[in-house]
Amino acid sequence: PVTVSQAIAMAGGALRATKMSGVRIIRQKEGSTSKEIIPVDLNAISKLNAPDILLEPNDVVQVPTSEGKIFMDKFLGAMTGGLSSIPYILR
Fold first, then answer.
1. Is the pTM of this model over 0.85?
2. Residue 42 burial by CB count (10 A; 0-12/13-18/19+): exposed, middle or buried?
3. What is the torsion angle, in degrees rounded to the nearest 10, for the CA atoms of residue 36, residue 42, residue 43 and residue 46?
4. What is the pLDDT of residues 3-21, one digit of tens each?
């Protein structure tokens, strides 16, 4: 048995840009072609405020990212990388 947080950890863990409260498990309903979506809040799980759901065979775990966080990480990375190349004078 593997829980959703264990599966994410085995896949390399959550990124800084991960929407921790927006994770979803997509599970096919037994004996049906329809699927159910199970919302998962990794923040609540890590604080022991929510159960860590056991995954079932054929479950799909979607881990969304925040485009805003990705943009800011890239922007700040470019800014700090650029600052290191500015010459300075020691006095």
1. no
2. buried
3. 130
4. 999 998 898 877 777 788 8
